[in-house]
Amino acid sequence: MNDVAIPLSLAAFREGFPALQSGAYLSICDKAILHDRVRDAVDDFLTGMAGGNATRVGHETHVTAARKAFAAMIGASADEIAFGRNVSDGINAVVCAMDWKAGDNAVVCLALEHPNNIYPWLRLKKRGVTLRDVPPVNGRIDQAAMADAMDASTRMVSCASVSFAPGYRADLARLGAAARRHDALFLVDGVQSAGILCHDVEAENVDAFATSTSKGLLGIYGAGFLYVSSRWVDRLEPAYLSRPAVAAENDDASAIGAYDYRLQPGARRFEVGSYNLAGAYAVDAAMALLAGVGADTVERQALMVAEGLRAALHAAGATPVSQPADAHETSHIVTAGPLDAGGHGFSSTAWVEPLSARLAEAGVIHTVRRGQLRLATHGYNTEADVALVRDALAGWQRAA
């Protein structure tokens, strides 16, 4: 809970992850690994609970600190951040807070979204809302077509900051600018990029940004952040309402106050019930680590290692390999093999599963998604991880 980040080298950062002592962890797109300091923070929470000497107010200092740190990370103010459960919770909170009318429309590219950013939109059809589903082009969002699909009846536009497969980064600033021309809210699923790639929600024209703490933010399951811009928050009415969302004269969680309640002036109006305090302790510690390394340093390292992985896969003939067309598309997720030739954990592409098995034998933790071999980096990955993948690729080629 220190407001001043303590500088931390990449080497020192890496040393704190027990999972990195052997093999290569290239699966941050699936889940985080725990740093020793994060685990220690959760232990502190559990010790306080076991001893019965921790107060709710004391626990919640970690919620407040984490909100503030996440706000600084994405270029927002702390009162624009809600502490919630996960990215799905945040997306649904925003979608359900809009006063939708029959004839309104929402613009998305469902083919590139994770289910957590598909089902909330499909549900709107029952309310007479038109879903304008814009097809992708070569695994990419068609930026021009998305913009063309917007009109005066468009209320929301949504996309993932980085697709979970094939792993291209969206040009948020361009999409957000198009949404603002139509006074539509731009909602981003940021779970694949938060904590790894740099964000500035103002520069990117993002109105709402939802993420979990269990991937790039290096926390644990069951916690997340929701950013809602101050320019939009008073135009949204939360679907669920409980004490944390209501403005009051004190912080007594059991005080009802007046029945003519007022919502919290910022994004905290979207907070419901008790906080995941273990999650708050964890992400508070993790955010301090990330701030100590520096967002620019984390992104630069993650992208450098990802580029090495792309080159290694391409040289070994494990193609097609996701290859960004320009800087806007560059991310830390690297995929190989045809998209949708298979599904979650399996592939109909002849070489994907044998190569996946070879990588697993070499100690390379990775995934197969939408039939593609998928690797993903963070700031703790190094050239040594690329070398390990190269060795596994060489063995796979010899056995082919």
What descriptors fit this protein?
400 residues, alpha/beta, Aspartate Aminotransferase, domain 1, Aspartate Aminotransferase, domain 2, 2 domains, 3-stranded antiparallel beta sheet, 11 helices, 35% helix, globular
What is the averaged pLDDT score?
95
CATH homologous superfamily annotation of the largest domain: Type I PLP-dependent aspartate aminotransferase-like (Major domain)
- Shape annotation: globular
Helix content: 25-40%
Give the neighbour order of strands across the main sheet.
2-8-7-6-5-3-4
Distinct helical segment count: 11
Instruction: Tell me the distance between the termini.
Output: 53 Å
Radius of gyration: 22 Å
Extended strand count: 16
CATH topology of the largest domain: Aspartate Aminotransferase, domain 2
The major β-sheet equals: 7 strands, mixed
Strand content: 5-15%
Which parts are unreliable, with pLDDT below 50 for 5 consecutive residues or more? none
CATH class of the largest domain: Alpha Beta
The CATH architecture term of the largest domain is 3-Layer(aba) Sandwich
Order of helices and strands: HEHHEHEHEHEHEEEEEHHEEEHEEEH
Looking at the chains present, what oligomeric state does this protein adopt?
single chain
